Amino acid sequence: MGKIVILTGAGISAESGLGTFRDVDGLWTKYDLAEVATPEGFARNPRLVQDFYNARRRNAAEAEPNAAHAALARLESAIGDDLFLVTQNIDGLHERAGSRRVIHMHGALDTALCAACGHRWPAPAEMRPEDTCPDCSRPATRPDVVWFGEMPYRMDEIYDAIAAADLFVAIGTSGEVYPAAGFVGEARSQGAETLEINLEPGAARGLFDRVIAGPATRAVPDWVAEVIG
Ligand code: APR
Predict the structure, then answer these.
(1) Known catalytic residue at 104
(2) Please, which of 24, 85, 114, 164 could form a disulfide with 133 given CB 3.0 to 4.6 Å?
(3) Of all protein residues, whose CA lies closest to atom 21 belonging to ligand 1?
(4) What Rg value do the Cα atoms of the chain yield, rounded?
(5) Contact 168, 7 (CB under 8 A)
């Protein structure tokens, strides 16, 4: 099978009870992303933003990984470093299902970041604007989440992995947000095969050589069984 790069989105955690963003009753139908997912929104109202992520941190802690997360952990056990798993999700469900190497390109709810000195530490359940950084003591803490207009993390590693990929798989992502939405085009230009696993084919369905439609908890285990037998 060679080297596989997998990109996951909110759809892989949907059946764990965590909302997606752009489906019917998705998060962005309830919140104005400019208010809660941009540096400008955070500067305007840090308490609103911290409370938004406190609620998502609580939901993620209460959610359980599902069969799709477990299947990807089995795939990692079977093919080791031939799997490069990058997620847009900030929940920890891949890790809680057993995946050991997960690239969180949009950050993670369980880490806190100091905007003043760059220090990172395990996020408390509730973060507040008056919290101070355990390293520099300044009141400059924020969720370690990549907001719109900010550069996602570990992009060099991701592009290197895509350049070496034999297969690129997008699971449960709408393909609406760049740079992640551009990964499939990058993979194709490098000669990789491309597969989309989604409840319904996403925005870039024309770019995928193969599409498996269905809920992730069924479609991902079935596909992993096909790969590792
Ligand atoms: N199984 C598989 N796919 C599903 C399921 C399911 N049970 N439920 C929903 N989906 C699919 C939808 O069809 C859709 O294509 O998951 C995708 C969810 O799309 P979005 O809500 O746009 O989530 P995502 O693609 O992860 O968003 C990307 O946008 O707001 C930013 O930073 C945020 O990381 C996020 C990024």
Answers:
(1) no
(2) 114
(3) 21
(4) 18
(5) yes
| Largest Cα span, the chain | 53
Q: Of 69, 94, 104, 106, which is the active-site residue?
A: 106
- Both 13 and 23 in one domain: the answer is no
Ligand 1 centroid from CA 162, angstroms: 21
| One domain for residues 91 and 29 | no
- Cα(80) to centroid of ligand 1, in Å? 26
Which among 96, 122, 145 is the end of a domain?
145
Q: Are residues 92 and 39 in the same domain?
A: no
- The CATH number of the domain holding residue 137 is 3.30.1600.10
- For ligand 1, atom 15, name the residue with the nearest CA: 174
- Total of domains in the chain: 2
Q: Is the pTM of this model over 0.85?
A: yes
C-beta of residue 158 within 8 angstroms of C-beta of residue 86: yes
**216-228 and 67-79 helices, crossing angle to 10°:** 20
Please tell me the total number of residues recorded for the chain in this structure: 229
Q: Give percent above pLDDT 70 in the chain.
A: 100
Same domain assignment for residues 116 and 219:
no
23 and 90 share a domain?
no
Same domain? For 199 and 123 the reply is: no
Q: For 106-165, what is each residue's pLDDT tens digit?
A: 999 999 999 999 999 999 999 999 999 999 999 999 999 999 999 999 999 999 999 999
Alpha helices in the chain (DSSP H): 27-30, 33-36, 39-44, 46-62, 67-79, 93-96, 155-163, 183-189, 216-228
